[in-house]
Structures are given as structure tokens and as C-alpha cells.
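Re: weekly structure request thread

Next one in the queue (158 aa):
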Amino acid sequence: MSEVTPFLWFDDAAEEAVTFYAALIPDSEVVTIERYPDEVPGMGGKVMHVHFRLGGRDYFGMDAGPQFPFTEAVSLYVACRDQEEVDRYWNALAADGGQEQPCGWLKDRWGLSWQIIPQRLVELIRHPDPEVAHRAVQAMLRMRRIDVAALEAAVARE
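Done, posted below.
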């Protein structure tokens, strides 16, 4: 059976990034790192191939230069149980040059986009009452980091 595995192209910080991700996300690890030989001009010692797991899922990556930076067209979605988990991921990923973006999105310091989304947001925007869902969406659109208490307050008003 064929497997489909995300492969991330980093400029020159694959090892730093995946080591950070593996320490941040439970059930994660750096499996193997292979380096370019010194004979490869400008690449000697950099990561030629890294196999890592995030949340038990396999990923691959490499250092390959700045030709193809990450964009928001691809993001990693983190489903969070509660506000505490949202805050933990948000604070870690936005630190040291990360960029907060609207609606629970952010870019980490390596430019990779993440969605840090509490389960409660998903429940509220899928609510069977369209007015509740609408108020939840409108509240989310005014947020960067998702604030569960603010969502609850927005949907509770009559």
C-alpha cells in the first residue's frame, strides 16, 4: 500500500525546527537525520533528510535553501482540548519571531503555518442553531489566538 507523508523544505534550519516540534508535541520524536557530505558545495553538514514524527504521524524534511519558502497554502492543524492547550502551543510557536495571524493561525519562526484550534470553536461554528454558529464565527474573526471564554460570551448573549 502506498503511503502519503508530508515533506517539508526548510531553508537551513530543519534540525532545529523538527527538534523543537518534537519536544513541543506529545508522542513525537526525531527518528533519523542524514546530513549532506562535506563535498556538496555550501551544504556540507546540513540536513539532507530528516524523518520525524509529530503526534505519532510521520513527516520528512530537508535543508535545501531559500528558493521555496513556506506559505499559508499549507498549515499544520493542532486540535486542542482547552484554552490551556491553545495557550501552550500558541506561546511556543509564536515565540522568537513567530507571527500571529487571524482566526487561530500563526507562522512559527521558520515560516511554517499552524492552526491552533480549540475543540470548543469547532463545536460552536457547527452548532445546529445558525445564530449561535454565526456569533461564534463573528467572534473568531476578531481574534488572533482563539479565546474560548470570549467565544462562550459571544454566543451566550441574546
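The CA atoms of residues 135 and 154 lie 6 Å apart. Strands lie at 7-10, 29-35, 47-54, 57-63, 75-80, 99-100, 105-107, 113-118.
Next request, please.
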